[in-house]
Design brief:
Elements lengths: L2 H4 L3 E4 L5 E5 L13 H5 L3 E4 L21 H15 L4 E6 L1 H12 L4 E7 L17 H13 L1 H13 L5 H13 L2 H12 L14 E8 L5 H10 L4 E8 L3 H4 L1 H15 L1
Parallel strand pairs: 2-3, 2-4, 4-5, 5-6, 6-7
Antiparallel strand pairs: 1-3
Helix pairs in contact: 3-4, 5-6, 5-8, 6-7
Length: 267
């Protein structure tokens, strides 16, 4: 199989630079990184891709069995790395992709030099001693709404997820991205994402890690960022002034600065 075509791989930046692999979250694609890429591309070889079922990836390669687990998405990441023979990869994952990066690095630690987790959450559902931000009923209702009326759900939820109500164009962009995703594939990705529990995987992280959170985020509250930071020994936690769940769109300069500062310290 042609992995480059399957995952719609694109490469920019310094040909001989250290590798930064950017991974998008649910309902999105590599275009979500476009505002931070120019900064990263000055010093790094920037690799972007779309998960199967998202963006410009080859949807014929999608299977519900594979992508009903975050391990399936981690396999996409590792196959991209293998196809391009990437080594010493700085993996930057947004939202659920932060945990996909954790799984990929646990499977093939020799390929990764560091992790940047942008607005991560290892578990979205609250339980005793842990606040994920949602009750089990909340998630059941969210998934039921998504499965019964995906386009309506997208239009209603995108502005909430994005935050920044004074900049409605951001919510509109996210809604457009959601709506461009095949509803059947999106339903599987959503269920895989919002029912996941990757907390035990955090202790497997052995590479330098940056946890990058927003000051207000309905999807990943600050308690979650603190939990991830505490669970990964030696990790660094940065709280951006930005609000919402997508700082690479709402605050690209601050996001790029935090990432490049962290990666620069690792070089």
């Amino acid at each position: 199989m042609d992995i480059r075509r399957r995952n719609n791989i694109s490469i920019t930046g310094r040909v001989d630079g250290p590798v930064v692999l950017l991974a998008h979250g649910f309902g999105c694609d590599q275009n979500m990184w476009r505002l931070v890429v120019p900064t990263l591309a000055k010093n790094y070889r920037v690799v972007l891709f779309d998960y199967v079922g998202s963006g410009g990836a080859d949807s014929s390669a999608w299977s519900e069995q594979r992508y009903s687990s975050l391990e399936g998405y981690a396999s996409d990441v590792l196959e991209v790395c293998e196809e391009l023979d990437l080594q010493d990869v700085a993996f930057v994952g947004h939202s659920v992709s932060a945990m996909v990066g954790v799984l990929a690095a646990a499977k093939a630690p020799q390929r990764f030099s560091s992790l940047v987790m942008v607005a991560p959450s290892p578990r979205y559902i609250d339980e005793d001693g842990y606040r994920g931000g949602f009750s089990a009923d909340d998630i059941d209702e969210l998934l039921e709404s998504l499965e019964s009326n995906y386009l309506g759900w997208s239009a209603a939820m995108a502005p909430v997820i994005m935050g920044n109500p004074e900049r409605p164009e951001l919510g509109e962009e996210l809604s457009t991205s959601f709506c461009a995703t095949d509803p059947a594939m999106a339903r599987v990705f959503a269920r895989t994402t919002f029912l996941s529990d990757s907390r035990d995987d955090l202790k497997k992280v052995t590479v330098p890690t940056l946890v990058l959170e927003c000051s207000q985020d309905v999807i990943a509250p600050r308690e979650v960022g603190a939990y991830v930071h505490q669970a990964i020994p030696g990790s660094r936690l940065i709280t951006l002034e930005a609000t919402g769940h997508c700082p690479q769109l709402s605050a690209p300069q601050a996001t790029a600065a935090a990432v490049t500062e962290f990666l620069g310290d690792r070089r």
